[in-house]
Amino acid sequence: MNLNRYLFTSTNRSEVLAALEITLSTAAALILGSSSFVGWLSLALSIGGLLFGIFLVTMFAISVQVSSKEKEVAIMRALGAKGSTILSGFLSRVALVTAVGCLLGVLAGYFLASFNVECSLLSIEVVGLIALFSLISSFSGGSVAAKRVLHLRIGEVLR
Amino acid sequence: MSDESVLRVENLTKTFEMDYGRVYLFGGLCAEIEKGDFAAITGPTGVGKTTLINIIAGLEPPSQGTVTVLGKDIASMDDTATTEFRGKNIGIVFQEPRLLADVNVFENVELPLVIQNMQEPERRAKTKEILDFFGLTRKASVYPAALSAGENRKAAIARALVTEPHILLMDEPTGGLDASTINILTPLLRGIHYLHKGTILMATNNLNLARIASREIPIMRPRIMMTCQ
User: Fold this and answer.
1) What does the alpha-carbon distance between residue B187 and residue B143 come to, in Å, rounded to a whole number?
2) Domain B5-226, what architecture?
3) How many helices (H) and strands (E) does chain B have?
4) Distances (CA, A) of B171 to A117, A139, B51, B94
5) Interchain pair A6, B80: CB under 8 A
6) pTM above 0.80?
7) Are the C-beta atoms of B131 and B105 separated by less than 8 Å?
8) How large is the ipTM?
9) A84-131 pLDDT, tens per residue?
10) Which residues from B are below 8 Å from A86, CB to CB?
11) Which helix or strand (DSSP H or E) is residue B41 part of?
12) Does A10 touch chain B (CB under 8 A)?
């Protein structure tokens, strides 16, 4: 059963914010990762910080989205929709935001790095690794927030 | 418990912790509703009518006592089993219509059938049929914000009935409506009982409306244990 057409009738502002943050941070991580002038330790710290930022912003954005959809979720649960079905709807949305953000970030980062003489380490391995870490941190951030739909107190929300 | 028993409430109490003390609702309520009954839960505002509806629907747990719906102790089931049981057997009309604002009336009424994974042609036919019964066919493509209060309420009742549930729970179906709308809805509710043939449990503080029910379950005033300051 697909309840997404009931839950997500339009693009939420917090989703756009999350996708933008993922795009910018992924692009920045890619530029940093392919820079030849940055030391290994500072490189690891900077990229780690960017990825942690992606995790937090995605978690916050999806948390806002879950809060704004509390009533809809509670109505659907009261009408018999399982928590796991609604969670999978939110997770598919997180996956979409994550994929769009990462793809745009990789394209923007690759474009900027390929014109930068300092980014001599740009390779398919670097691009792949940054994209993978960006996907993992953004999806896990969104998933943590989306799991809140399983713990809604339906009776209280519908009062 | 008789064979015809659809709902059995035994020694039910719900406790709430408030700033001023502890509130005990229902005071060990016992009641039994049989198949085809139309029962009205009555009592003034604040006695816990909505809470009782929520407990019977498995949306809130009781603090004490048991609630057996169609032979199942609703509080002992896990969340997934309760949700599935509710979807198959119980139709709920909330105090507010609670229609989804971003989809039209047809999609709102169709929603419980979507949740039940019913095939689209059958789903659409059932939805059209119930919209027709409630006189909402011309409003099918309208969004809830453009409906009158009475039409909103009718759409909410249609949504609850579209799955042909064994039990229909209605929380203040005429609450907040003007007298003329109540006069339109009251015979409709009586007609629903006649046609639905299932069991109806309606919470109301409108005594005129309670008269259309075949029996009444009065709720006692809550007991409050004040905290010493």
Assistant:
1) 26
2) 3-Layer(aba) Sandwich (3.40)
3) 7, 10
4) 70, 40, 10, 5
5) no
6) yes
7) yes
8) 0.88
9) 999 999 999 999 999 999 999 999 998 988 888 777 788 888 889 999
10) none
11) strand B38-42
12) yes
